Amino acid sequence: MRKKLTVLSTLLFISGRILSQDLPKESAYLQDSNLDKFVGTWEYNSKLDSTLIIIELHRVKLLMSDAGFYYDTIIGVHTYIKRGVTMETSAPFNSTNNYNAATIMAIDKPFGTNQLKIKTSLKDITKKKRIVAYLEIQPDNPNALLLSFQDVDGIRINQEKGFTMPTNILLTKR
User: Fold this and answer.
1) What is the pLDDT of residues 53-94, one digit of tens each?
2) Are 42 and 172 contacting, i.e. CB atoms less than 8 angstroms apart?
3) Which of 37, 82, 93, 151 could form an S-S bond across to 77 if both were Cys, CB 3.0 to 4.6 Å?
4) Residue pLDDT, tens place only, 90-129
């Protein structure tokens, strides 16, 4: 139930962002080529930790009472290993639009003029909460992605603070 509410609230947020613009025609496709640079397999390795993120581009249909149109969004999965022990994993992931397996979902388009940074929602599986994750392609290296986290604003009952995965890590595209 909580997973459905999270997905629904994410889609409602995206819908609100899209609705603040002029509505496209029925069955229109709002392609966003700025998201392509985030797609792929990204990894971080240190002596103690490793993180793997797989991001895919998906064409999603937004259904409303008067219009139904498609837009691009990114969804993905992650695996976090600490000292050789898998702490979190939402993989394996297949390309069959399995949104229940996804732990990463875009909740905003690239930031205004900064087309290298996007705000996403990431599910911290261990702490059983959704957090805000920023993905930022490094301007001097399109194969480097900075991953940073922020707790979701608001009151949280029975949720631990902090994040399971390390934050502010630089991932490399495979």
Assistant:
1) 999 888 777 665 456 777 788 889 999 999 999 999 987 655
2) yes
3) 93
4) 876 555 455 667 888 886 665 555 689 999 889 999 988 8
Tokens of 38: 């985030």
Q: Read off the DSSP letter of residue 17.
A: H
Residue 102 backbone phi and psi in degrees, to 5: -70, 135
Quick check: 155 pLDDT over 90?
Answer: no
Which H/E stretch holds residue 150? strand 141-151
**Coil vs helix vs strand at 149:** strand
- Overall size of the chain counted in residues: 174
Domain boundaries, the chain: 2-173
Q: Kindly state the percentage of the chain with pLDDT values over 70.
A: 66
Q: Both tokens of residue 5? A: 């509410």
The Cα-based distances of 13 to 6, 29, 62, 129, 130 in angstroms read: 11, 19, 12, 17, 14
